[in-house]
């Protein structure tokens, strides 16, 4: 029995473990939290810090190949592992995804062939940078270059005084100031690429964010204008290829008005791993993003995913476990009574507001039916309806 390892024990690691075990692999998870969602379902759980030498040695001893489930694994830890084991994605690719400036520089290079570039932006690493930031970037969003997720490490700024205050508020760390764009839509594309350069992709996902956190993903056949979808897929493939990427990669896009009927694409950021906007692939496709992560890591064939159902994914944040300051149990029985609902709970004990506790995917034969049931599920759970 071969063993596959994963750095990180969150819900993405847990779904990776499930997919790996289904294919007959053993798994090892390295996560400092002894009760982590992935560690609890894995064959082996190494509960040390990510850069602990003994922990890394144990992981290498157990595993033939190792992947990562969050982008903030210390790059040095991945390099240590990569010196002795197959690591996918590789440390260089993860290092680019860890740093918004490096990431945007990579997007800008790819834009010369794909035509899809990042939002106008500037590096902010000093008071002089604050003073010199182009006026055209305001109003903007100041984002820490590293370690942000779910909208954390971001401040909206309307003018230069606010920018100066935001940079202090974020701890005077290296940041990126991005122009705040009027978003018409948000999309994402997930690809899986093998060590041999073979690559497959999922269809374009449409994402709704609330408070900087993904709330709803909808994937219906042909729901995105074909030319826009093709361009997003081509841009994602180019971003992966130019990085010599191996594994599952998700790229997030904005759609902005440019006077054309469909609007124009701007590339936002990438995640060097399966993505929250791809969770519906477990239930609506004949191969999931997690199975493709396993296949890419193990050097098994990648196949083009086929969508067999229209799908809506609702994120279940910790807020749903509270009403008027009192703990409540969401109406699971009501949701499960709706045909085509697939409930996934991650086994996290503490339901903090904004924390990703689980998701529910609603599948149906048609987009209209999936939407209608998803809205019904949302009502039962206390999730606000969406346009
Ligand atoms: P994730 O959890 O996806 O990694 P993150 O914390 O890295 O999130 P971003 O993806 O940079 O954050 O931004 C979160 C959301 O904030 C975006 O999906 C979008 O809704 C909004 N947003 C970010 N940048 C911009 C921008 N330049 N203009 C307008 N809205 C933006
Ligand atoms: Mg991000
Ligand atoms: Mg994002």
Helix and strand layout, with pairings?
Blueprint: E1 3-7, H1 11-22, E2 26-30, E3 44-46, H2 53-62, E4 65-68, H3 75-82, E5 86-87, H4 91-98, H5 100-114, E6 121-124, H6 127-132, E7 140-144, E8 154-157, H7 160-169, E9 175-179, E10 183-193, E11 199-201, E12 205-210, E13 213-219, H8 226-242, E14 247-256, E15 264-271, H9 281-284, H10 289-298, E16 310-317, E17 322-323, E18 326-327, H11 332-336, E19 341-345, E20 356-364, H12 367-381
Parallel strand pairs: 1-2, 1-4, 2-3, 4-5
Antiparallel strand pairs: 6-9, 7-8, 7-9, 10-11, 10-12, 10-14, 12-13, 13-16, 14-15, 16-20, 17-18, 19-20
Helix pairs in contact: 1-10, 3-4, 4-5, 5-8
The structure holds adenosine-5'-triphosphate and magnesium ion (2 copies).
What does this structure look like?
The protein is of the alpha+beta class. It folds into three domains: 85 residues, 3-Layer(aba) Sandwich (Rossmann fold); 60 residues, ATP-grasp fold, A domain (Dna Ligase, domain 1, 2-Layer Sandwich), CATH 3.30.1490; 199 residues, D-amino Acid Aminotransferase, Chain A, domain 1. It has twelve helices and 20 strands. The strands form four sheets. Strands 10, 11, 12, 13, 14, 15, 16, 19 and 20 form a nine-stranded antiparallel sheet that branches. Strand 4, helix 3 and strand 5 form a beta-alpha-beta unit. Helix 4 crosses helix 5. The chain is globular. The N and C termini lie far apart (48 Å). The mean pLDDT is 97. The structure holds adenosine-5'-triphosphate and magnesium ion (2 copies). The site of one magnesium ion has 3 residues, from strand 15. One magnesium ion binds next to loops.
């Amino acid at each position: 029995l071969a063993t596959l390892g994963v750095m990180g024990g969150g819900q993405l690691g847990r779904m990776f473990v499930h997919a790996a075990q289904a294919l007959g692999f053993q798994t090892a998870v390295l996560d400092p939290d002894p009760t982590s969602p992935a560690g609890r379902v894995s064959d082996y759980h190494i509960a040390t810090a990510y850069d602990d030498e003994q922990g890394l040695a144990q992981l290498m001893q157990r595993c033939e190949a190792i992947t990562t489930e969050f982008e903030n694994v210390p790059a040095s830890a991945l390099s240590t592992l990569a010196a002795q084991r197959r690591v996918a994605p590789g440390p260089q690719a993860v290092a680019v995804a860890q740093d918004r400036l490096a990431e945007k520089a990579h997007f800008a290079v790819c834009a010369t062939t794909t035509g899809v570039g990042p939002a106008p932006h500037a590096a902010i690493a000093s008071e002089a940078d604050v003073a010199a930031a182009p006026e055209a970037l305001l109003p903007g969003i100041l984002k820490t270059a590293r370690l942000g997720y779910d909208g954390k490490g971001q401040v909206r700024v309307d003018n230069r005084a606010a920018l100066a205050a935001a940079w202090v508020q974020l701890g005077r760390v290296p940041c990126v100031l991005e122009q705040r764009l009027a978003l018409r839509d948000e999309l994402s594309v997930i690809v899986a690429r093998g060590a041999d350069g073979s690559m497959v992709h999922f269809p374009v996902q449409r994402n709704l964010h609330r408070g900087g956190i993904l709330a709803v993903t909808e994937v219906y056949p042909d729901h995105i204008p074909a030319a826009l979808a093709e361009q997003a897929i081509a841009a994602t493939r180019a971003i992966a290829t130019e990085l010599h990427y191996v594994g599952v990669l998700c790229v997030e896009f904005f759609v902005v008005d440019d006077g054309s009927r469909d609007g124009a694409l701007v590339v936002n950021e990438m995640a060097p791993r399966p993505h929250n906007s791809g969770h519906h692939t477990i239930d609506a496709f004949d191969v999931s993003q997690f199975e493709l992560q396993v296949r890419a890591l193990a050097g098994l064939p990648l196949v083009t995913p086929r969508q067999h159902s229209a799908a809506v994914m609702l994120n279940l944040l910790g807020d749903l476990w509270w009403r008027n300051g009192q703990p409540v149990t969401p109406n699971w029985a009501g949701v499960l009574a709706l045909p085509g609902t697939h409930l996934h709970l991650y086994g996290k004990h503490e339901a903090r507001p904004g924390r990703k506790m689980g998701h529910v995917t609603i599948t149906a034969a048609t987009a209209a039916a999936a939407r209608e049931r998803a809205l019904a599920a949302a009502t039962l759970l206390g999730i606000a309806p969406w346009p």
